[in-house]
Design goal:
It is built from two helices and two strands; from the N terminus they run E-E-H-H. By secondary structure, it is an alpha+beta fold. The protein has a two-stranded antiparallel sheet with strand order 1-2.
């Protein structure tokens, strides 16, 4: 962490963490993932999150089974 200029774990940000995405390309988590602002899902979720947010339920944890036809 000292090499990154970070003194404690809570100072780490997505920009500090890296992931190899191809054999020759490494990107930060800030570049790979879409990060939400606090409370953003309570208002208008981003289009890429809308379907998952609509399917979410406080009554269960896990994927929704597809209806049997």
């Amino acid at each position: 962490m000292a090499a990154m200029g970070v003194r404690e774990p809570r100072a780490l940000t997505p920009a500090h963490l890296r992931r190899r995405v191809t054999t020759s390309d490494v990107r930060s988590y800030a570049e790979i993932f879409e990060w939400l602002s606090p409370g953003e899902l309570l208002g208008d979720p981003p289009e890429t999150w809308a379907a998952d947010w609509a399917a979410a339920s406080a009554d269960r944890f896990g994927p929704v089974a597809a209806p049997v036809r």
